[in-house]
Amino acid sequence: MQLTKTKTKKSKQTMDEKLNSLRAGVLGSNDGILTVVGVLFSVAAATTNQFTIFIAGLSDLLACAFSMASGEYASVSTQKDTEKAVVEKEKRLLKTDFDNEIAAVKRHYMTLGVSEATSIEIAKDLLSKKPLETVVSVKYDMELGHYMNPWDAAFASLFSASAGGIFPLFAMTFAPASFQWPATIIAVSVAVALTGYLSAVLGKGNVKTAVIRNVIVGIITMFIHYYVGKLF
């Protein structure tokens, strides 16, 4: 049987691929906000030297951004390798165990309420036209030729972590000295509320719960790091 070949040219991103990059961006932004404000509060509680505070915050922002990017790249690369391995496995099974592949497709349609006789006909028809696309879709809910792009996820995390960390960094280092603490608290609270909102929208979760949870975590983070800085 002639198996349908995977397209070699770059395909248009699927919705799942776009959402994966967006989720990576939201998570990266949230991490950037919290890690940078943590370092800023610890250092600012220990010293009033603005240059020292700024350099500490900037260094942490860069470290967080590149750490998030490399971690996301490694994670999505592993996922991509797994997806490719699955496709190669199904290619072999279509050659060596075709009857069980038909049975798998038949079972899929039967779980959707299609009769056994009709499910068999559908399975045979689909596997005679697009065998590899069909089994990959039915068994793994994957679209053949569309793999998560590790570079997209890495750059999304790099950019978003940097963008998130800018909120507390600018508030702490450029606000008037008498207002830098409340300015940073406000900036962080607004920023994590926004990432909470976006994560809830992307994940179709409860927006109010996500926003409140993120703000509480942000406040706890600032509180803990402030007192850690006071110890020195």
UniProtKB/TrEMBL annotation:
<protein>
    <submittedName>
        <fullName>VIT family protein</fullName>
    </submittedName>
</protein>
<feature type="transmembrane region" description="Helical">
    <location>
        <begin position="51"/>
        <end position="70"/>
    </location>
</feature>
<keyword id="KW-0812">Transmembrane</keyword>
<feature type="transmembrane region" description="Helical">
    <location>
        <begin position="181"/>
        <end position="203"/>
    </location>
</feature>
<keyword id="KW-1133">Transmembrane helix</keyword>
<dbReference type="Pfam" id="PF01988">
    <property type="entry name" value="VIT1"/>
</dbReference>
<feature type="transmembrane region" description="Helical">
    <location>
        <begin position="210"/>
        <end position="228"/>
    </location>
</feature>
<keyword id="KW-0472">Membrane</keyword>
<feature type="transmembrane region" description="Helical">
    <location>
        <begin position="21"/>
        <end position="45"/>
    </location>
</feature>
<dbReference type="InterPro" id="IPR008217">
    <property type="entry name" value="Ccc1_fam"/>
</dbReference>
<feature type="transmembrane region" description="Helical">
    <location>
        <begin position="153"/>
        <end position="175"/>
    </location>
</feature>
